[in-house]
Structures are given as structure tokens and as C-alpha cells.
Hints:
Strand content of chain A: 5-15%
Order of helices and strands of chain A: HHEEHEEHHH
Helix content of chain A: 40-55%
Oligomer: homodimer
Largest sheet of chain A: 2 strands, antiparallel
CATH topology of chain A: Arc Repressor Mutant, subunit A
Number of helices of chain A: 6
Shape of chain A: globular
CATH architecture of chain A: Orthogonal Bundle
Radius of gyration of chain A: 19 Å
Strand order of the largest sheet of chain A: 1-2
Structural class of chain A: mainly alpha
Number of domains of chain A: 1
Amino acid sequence: MTTLMLMRPLFHPSIEGITVEGILHALSDPVRVAIYTDIVAQQCSQNCSTFLTVSDKTIPKSTLSQHFRALREAGLIRGEWHGVEMHNTSRCAEIEQRFPGLIRAIVNAHAIQSAGEARAKKPVARRPTKRAAANK
Amino acid sequence: MTTLMLMRPLFHPSIEGITVEGILHALSDPVRVAIYTDIVAQQCSQNCSTFLTVSDKTIPKSTLSQHFRALREAGLIRGEWHGVEMHNTSRCAEIEQRFPGLIRAIVNAHAIQSAGEARAKKPVARRPTKRAAANK
DNA sequence: TTCAATAGTTCGGGAATATAGAACTATTGA
DNA sequence: TCAATAGTTCTATATTCCCGAACTATTGAA
């Protein structure tokens, strides 16, 4: 006799149930924030398997599933089944109502950081210093 | 022969070393965000023992010490020894330069949430509904 | 100088949380 | 009916968090 695995329904918090701590915790993970900013950027919904690799790193799908759950239960995204696949949309309009400016500030800060990292990684995009030119 | 405990110097990240993830993670804890908002509110510095109780809950001082370290190493506060006690000041001006609007949005969101919780807890501050009045 | 008091840190182990492989569910299309 | 696909749940391991106990470091008083 084997214990059965049941597929429980998705949980989404109400607007009042959404907390700042929950949002910050959910977005304090690099994989989750990458997923979330992508979902926000594409107004259209994004499904799980779009993110099997995040910034050149392969994410196991069980881990991905947990990340999506974390985002969902923090109230950041809404997921709904369309046949065998899930459609995810951001709830940023609702959150904007409860916590004005919060999501925008976080997404913006993340963009600034990513831009900085990209600049640091690709020195070709930078005007080389005299010293660097001499070392070449 | 006992292994000795050494008191290593405080670490503070440089501005470039501060990350969004780090900030969000540090502020995703209710105790830490309470400490931080207090330090931001009082421009003057706050020492550890001010926070032995946070929202009617006693926090052990070892735990508090860890929380202060987390805030420090996320780049949110700067701590410096003044004799036997530590003075903590917020680094929000620096962070504002790197991630404009981020801290303000988070502190503001937290204030909104706290106000909502306070309203929910003290029904006297709310105009009672007819139904509530009838049940009285 | 010595010692007690004070403020905070570090250590260690138990609790909670995160990661990821394997097995599973549920839907679709052939 | 069945294989393929998309995602979830289970489980074991790894990491992180919490807090009591022991410790460091400074100050002020005897």
C-alpha cells in the first residue's frame, strides 16, 4: 500500500493578506526575482518551463515549482491552469493599490543592479583606461 | 586547553557591494525591519539594548546581535564602537544614491501595513458597523 | 590595580527552511 | 488507450536561523 500524492488547489492570498515581509522575502532570491521581473515585463503570462535556465544556470523543475509557489503565496503572481500548463500573471496592479511604489522601486533597483553587473562583466562596453590599454 | 573566542572587527560592505537581494532579505524579517525603521526615524544612533523587546516580544540579546549584524552586512546600517556600546546609524543616503526610492518605498509600505494592523487590533479607532453595535 | 557591571559577540546544537532527484498527477493529442 | 508534456509532491540532505551559555572588551568604582 502506497501513500497517495494529491494535487491540492492553488492558494492565492487576498490583497489584505499580502505582507511587506512576504513580498521582500519572495523577491530576496535571485532566481525568483528574475522570474518575477520577467513576468512583469511581459504583460502576457509566462509558464514555468520558460525559466528552466536562469542566467546561465539550470534550475531543476521541482525547485522552479517551489519558487513559483513562493511567488504565488506571497501574492506577487496569480497562476491559473490552462489545460496541462499554468499561466502566470503579475498582481502588481493590486499591490500598487495596497503598497504604492513598492514594486516599481524594487524592480527598478534590480534593473540598476543588473545593468551595473553587465557593465562590470563586459569591459568592451566601457571606455578603456590608459592603464588597461598599456597592459594589453 | 580551551579554544579562544575572538572578537573580529565589524564588516561594512562598500556601496557597490550592496545588493538588492541583500537589502530585501535583511528587511524581510519583522524584527529587523522594526529595528531598521526605528534607526531611520531617529536620525540619532540607536544602540542594541533599545530593542530588547520588539512589539511586546522579548528578543534574546544573542539573536539581536545577529539581527544587527545582518543589517550591517546588508549595508543598511553602519555600526561603530563608542566605548562599550555600539552606535548604529542608517546608511540610507548612500543607498538612495545607488537605488533611488527603494528604502523610502519599503519603509512607507511597512508604515501602511503597520497602520492597517493597528486599526484591525483596536476596533475603538474604527467607526463600528451597525451589525457590531447590535451584537454588543 | 583589581574587580564588578555593562554591552555586545561567539559558540553549539536543535528547529526551521531550502535544494534537488525520483516518483507521482493530470491533461492533451495521436 | 497510451505516450508526451507540464507541473507537483515526496524525501533526504544541506543550509540557515534561533537562542541559551560562555565569552570578550570597556568603563567606572573601590
